[in-house]
């Protein structure tokens, strides 16, 4: 009795704690849904269909990749369709905000949204996009831009319908590179025993573990800008370095994986649109896929703030990194779909002269 009593009490408290967490999550979700509904009503105009577009970040300039898509929707719709961008969809205290956005989109709290394509596998269990994040697959941002411009990504987006979503576009957003906060992350040994901030990306998490590091999820509000504590590094694209004000070492010639932006819609909401409205969204997505690479400025190491020191891995370091990360590629190839996608990507990159 005395042994089981405390144990039962702990179980009871744990269940109550989990119930409170679920309740808070539900309350936050209902609050966002209510806010979106009020926003739609406030901006609604007679004869104009208004769709709520969830932006995880608090500022519109945080997602320049979607600018072309928004502009083309407004132009092609000729005033009949309006996308209302709702900023700050997730809280700075959320450790996996992209999961929240995808779940809210699937439930219909938003009509459209954008997230990092990396998050789909962990959030929805749909791994079709994971091979595009295979470590060291793309040699540079130009290869990513050219690939997304001409590749047939429709088969990779089709599985999203299983979760009630429709993938409209995959847009390039630069290359993520190793960024060391406490010391440089150059060769494989530099990663061993380090705590690395990760996003909800199955491939990134597997890669960090393969290098001997411990991946952790951190909310933006926990990172503390230049004074980020509790982590030794992260995967970061150069534009974010300046925006967040971090100080550390950026390994310029180790392109871990691309930052790919997924623009998606709630499938049920999309079906409620007229055929001409759906055509506007699809055509805007097609044009954005072609134009976004041309709009984004090239990543240049000499434009980084003084707080960032550029380091370069040797050929031996890069070869050792590829060897250590080979099991991640093997895992991605372990399914017929993954093998087919990687083979397609490698073949297309080779034809573009971009296998590096």
What can you tell me about this protein's structure?
The chain has 356 residues and is of the alpha/beta class. It has a single domain (44-351), classed as D-Maltodextrin-Binding Protein, domain 2. The protein has 13 helices and 10 strands. The chain has helices at 4-43, 67-77, 97-107, 120-124, 141-150, 154-157, 202-210, 220-223, 238-244, 267-272, 275-295, 315-332, 336-351; strands at 49-54, 81-86, 112-116, 165-180, 195-198, 214-217, 233-236, 248-251, 257-266, 308-311. Helix 2 runs antiparallel to helix 11, helix 5 runs antiparallel to helix 11 (275-295) and helix 7 crosses helix 12 (315-332). Residues 20-27 have low confidence and may be disordered.
Number of domains: 1
Largest sheet: number of strands, sense, barrel closure: 10 strands, mixed
The H-and-E topology, N to C, reads as HEHEHEHHHEEHEHEHEEHHEHH
CATH architecture: 3-Layer(aba) Sandwich
Q: Indicate the low-confidence ranges by residue numbers.
A: 20-27
User: What's the CATH first level?
Assistant: Alpha Beta
Radius of gyration from the alpha-carbon trace, in angstroms = 21 Å
Helix content: 40-55%
Shape: globular
Summed over residues and divided by their number, the pLDDT gives a mean of 86
CATH superfamily: Bacterial extracellular solute-binding protein, family 7
């Amino acid at each position: 009795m005395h042994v089981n009593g405390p144990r039962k009490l702990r179980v009871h408290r744990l269940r109550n704690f989990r119930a409170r967490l679920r309740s808070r999550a539900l309350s936050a979700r209902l609050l966002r849904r209510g806010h979106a509904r009020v926003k739609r009503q406030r901006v609604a105009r007679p004869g104009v269909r208004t769709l709520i577009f969830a932006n995880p970040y608090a500022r519109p300039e945080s997602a320049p990749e979607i600018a072309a898509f928004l502009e083309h929707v407004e132009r092609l719709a000729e005033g009949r369709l309006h996308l209302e961008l709702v900023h700050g969809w997730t809280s700075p205290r959320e450790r996996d905000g992209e999961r929240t956005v995808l779940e809210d989109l699937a439930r219909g709290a938003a009509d459209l949204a954008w997230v990092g394509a990396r998050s789909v596998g962990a959030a929805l269990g749909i791994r079709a996009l994971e091979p595009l994040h295979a470590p060291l697959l793309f040699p540079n941002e130009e290869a990513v831009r050219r690939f997304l411009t001409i590749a047939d990504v429709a088969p990779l987006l089709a599985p999203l319908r299983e979760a009630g979503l429709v993938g409209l576009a995959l847009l390039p957003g630069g290359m993520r590179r190793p960024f060391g906060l406490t010391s440089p992350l150059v060769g494989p040994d530099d990663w061993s025993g380090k705590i690395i901030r990760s996003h909800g990306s199955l491939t990134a998490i597997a890669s960090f573990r393969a290098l001997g590091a411990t991946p952790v999820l951190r909310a933006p509000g926990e990172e503390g800008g230049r004074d980020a504590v509790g982590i030794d590094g992260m995967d970061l694209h150069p534009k974010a370095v300046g925006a967040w004000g971090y100080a550390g070492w950026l390994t310029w010639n180790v392109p871990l994986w691309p930052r790919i932006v997924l623009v998606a819609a709630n499938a049920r909401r999309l079906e409620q649109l007229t055929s001409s409205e759906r055509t506007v969204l699809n055509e805007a997505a097609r044009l954005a896929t072609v134009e976004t690479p041309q709009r984004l400025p090239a990543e240049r190491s000499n434009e980084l703030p003084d707080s960032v020191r550029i380091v370069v891995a040797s050929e031996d370091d890069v070869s050792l990194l590829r060897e250590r990360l080979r099991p991640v590629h093997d895992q991605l190839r372990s399914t017929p779909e993954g093998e087919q996608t990687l083979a397609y990507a490698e073949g297309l990159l080779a034809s573009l002269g971009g296998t590096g």
